[in-house]
Amino acid sequence: MSSGVAGAHLESVLETEICEHLAANGWLYSPTDAGYDKARAMFPDDIFTWLQETQPAELSGPRSSSRPCRPSSGRRRKTSCSTG
Fold first, then answer.
1. What are phi and psi of 41, to 5 degrees?
2. Contact (CB, 8 A) for 53 and 27
3. Is residue 41 classed as helix, strand or coil in its secondary structure?
4. Percent of the chain with pLDDT strictly greater than 70
5. Taking a C-beta distance cutoff of 8 angstroms, is the pair 31, 19 a contact?
6. Under a CB-based contact definition with an 8 Å cutoff, are residues 77 and 23 in contact?
7. What is the pTM of this model?
8. CA 39, 43, 47, 49 torsion: positive or negative?
9. Rounded distance between C-alpha atoms, residue 16 and residue 12, angstroms
10. Minimal CA–CA distance to 16: which of 8, 74, 69?
């Protein structure tokens, strides 16, 4: 059963529409997934930005070598979408 619209039932089409809607409403996303850490399934810079914004005293406290504090880009992504 075909709707006549090329790609109408592809997941990538839905994903692109969701990403475009989120971007149009102030959400940040990385179309290239630059900075995404697959092993941790997150954007580490976003975590440090969030910590800086919400818990600056705790973030500036003593750090062990196993928990280094990395500087943030200052912009926090709210979602990540990959269209490729």
1. 55, 50
2. no
3. coil
4. 64
5. yes
6. no
7. 0.49
8. positive
9. 6
10. 8
